[in-house]
Amino acid sequence: MFEKVLTFGTIAVILALWFAVTGLQLVDPKLVPSPQSVWTAFLDIAQNGYRNRTLFQHIGASLGRLIAAFLLAAAAAVPLGLASGFNAKIRAVLEPVIEFYRPLPPLAYYTILVLWLGIGDQSKIALLLLACFAPVYVSCVAAVIKINQDYLNCAYAVGAGRWQVFLHVVFPACLPDVLTGLRTALGVGYTTLVSAEMVAATSGLGWMVLDASRLLRSDITFLGIIIMGITGVLMDRGLRLLERRLVPWKGKE
Amino acid sequence: MNQLRQKQEEPLLALNHISFRYPAKKDEITALRSLSFTVETGEFLCVLGPSGCGKSTLLRMIAGFLKPTQGEIRMDGRRIQGPDWHRGVIFQAPTLYSWLNVRENIAFGLKMRKTAKDEIRNVTQSYIERVGLKGFETKKPYELSGGMKQRVSLARALVNQPDLLLMDEPLGALDALTRQDMQALVRKIWHETGNTVLLVTHDVDEALALGTRIMVLSSRPGRILNEFYPDFTRRFLSGDGEEVQYLPEYLAMRREIMKEMIRESGPAE
């Protein structure tokens, strides 16, 4: 309970500092806009939009890309990762490819994806897919490898086949770690998304922030960053909620 | 299958010059060297040995999880190639599936072998009652105490009606009272089902309280030092209760076994 107070206290202190610094005009409002002006900007672009698109269209554009890529990545990385952990031959094929591209900064190969797939959503989704894939894959492989062998032995000893063991034992046993991997992936994807929109886009939160900063509209830049932060926290909360529903045994074994 | 076996006069289980070596950094570690013995239907064999004598390895080979480096193990005359549901296994740490409740954990094997739904329901329920888990059917493993978990493990193995039950120190992690309860349960089930049991333990009293035959293994590389044929488990059953542990013949056999183990491994640490 006291921790909650501390959390809200911290937020309040930061806001108070912001109000004070801008209210006393200690800094140039071009560099640090006042909270009031950010709020006005919010009302303005929520109603009138920013550069032909409403605020919610910008948010929608960003989240649409992220969610599409995240779901595709999860659909591919979870089965491939679990299979790689379970079967050394599959791992031998996939791991070198993933080991190679994983440490690359996504923006390095983004230019190539743009050349291949164009400046539209496809190249962005492809980029995010690649960014999300690696953390999920890696956590799935690690999860399978650390399963207690006796979990599997017990299943074999009561007559389960290899495929049944994979489906009924390996998959649920790995689920807690898979979900942790998904949370990491969502974070990585979100960071990458904003960078991608900053390189080439005409919509989305990342683009809005960059475009506004070019026009010295620091109120909109601040607004964009705050919205990004809050959205990120909300998505992670959502996944944590899902985690509690899906793997109630996590940390209790 | 029982009759078939008797006709051929084959033992239920036969180990023929089994050795097992673990690959290690420099040399190999020999866990077991040239072990041979047989187990007859209905026996309750306790394999007794100090920690690290390879008794768990032995059990894992019989279960089919490990392949012996040399020699072969036959059950019903057929060579053991891998795990098989005719051999039920219970580990010291109950490896229950956290995502399934008690009933689903117990029914797991039947479900994997695609038994009819009605039959799964009936058989599972009867074993739930037998091991005293009535009322706990929908609990998750992490909501159970250690003793309860081990009851689930026991039922999960028994529900498949295995010809041989393999137990790897199943009661080692329980407190003294729970252990006594569980010993009584294991004994009762062994007696009622006429199952054949092979139990691995380092606890002399457990071996004496349960086994109809005790095989003492040496420290690594494990080999058979001696065998004993106690009768105390039946006396527990016939109502003598825990008093059996104070009988002079019980204490005499206990002393002999301890002597055997100490002579082999030096004074206890």
CATH level-1 class of the largest domain in chain A = Mainly Alpha
Mean pLDDT of chain A: 91
Major sheet characteristics of chain B: 6 strands, mixed
The best one-word shape of chain A is globular
Strand content of chain B: 15-25%
- Low-confidence segments of chain A, given as residue ranges, are none
Structure annotation, total helices of chain A:
10
Range of helix content of chain A:
over 70%
Name the helicity range of chain B. Answer: 25-40%
Rg of chain B, alpha carbons: 19 Å
Secondary structure topology:
The complex is a heterodimer of chains A (about 250) and B (about 270).
Chain A: H1 2-23, H2 35-48, H3 55-86, H4 88-101, H5 106-117, H6 121-145, H7 149-157, H8 162-199, H9 205-214, H10 218-246
Helix pairs in contact in A: 2-10, 3-4, 3-6, 3-8, 5-6, 6-8, 7-8, 8-9, 8-10, 9-10
Chain B: H1 2-8, E1 13-23, E2 28-39, E3 44-48, H2 55-63, E4 70-75, E5 78-79, E6 87-90, H3 102-112, H4 117-130, H5 146-158, E7 164-168, H6 176-193, E8 196-201, H7 204-210, E9 213-217, E10 224-228, H8 232-240, H9 248-265
Parallel strand pairs in B: 3-8, 3-9, 6-7, 7-8
Antiparallel strand pairs in B: 1-2, 1-4, 4-5, 9-10
Outline the structure in words.
The complex is a heterodimer of chains A (253) and B (269). By secondary structure, chain A is an all-alpha fold. Chain A has helices at residues 2-23, 35-48, 55-86, 88-101, 106-117, 121-145, 149-157, 162-199, 205-214, 218-246. Chain A contains ten helices and no strands. By secondary structure, chain B is an alpha/beta fold. Chain B has two domains: 2-86 and 162-265, P-loop containing nucleotide triphosphate hydrolases (Rossmann fold), CATH 3.40.50; 93-161, no CATH class. Chain B has helices at 2-8, 55-63, 102-112, 117-130, 146-158, 176-193, 204-210, 232-240, 248-265, and strands spanning 13-23, 28-39, 44-48, 70-75, 78-79, 87-90, 164-168, 196-201, 213-217, 224-228. Chain B has a six-stranded mixed β-sheet, with helices on both faces. A four-stranded antiparallel β-sheet of chain B has the order 2-1-4-5, covered by helices on one side. In chain B, helix 3 (102-112) crosses helix 4 and helix 4 crosses helix 5 (146-158). At the A-B interface, helix 7 and helix 8 of A face strand 6 and helix 3 of B.
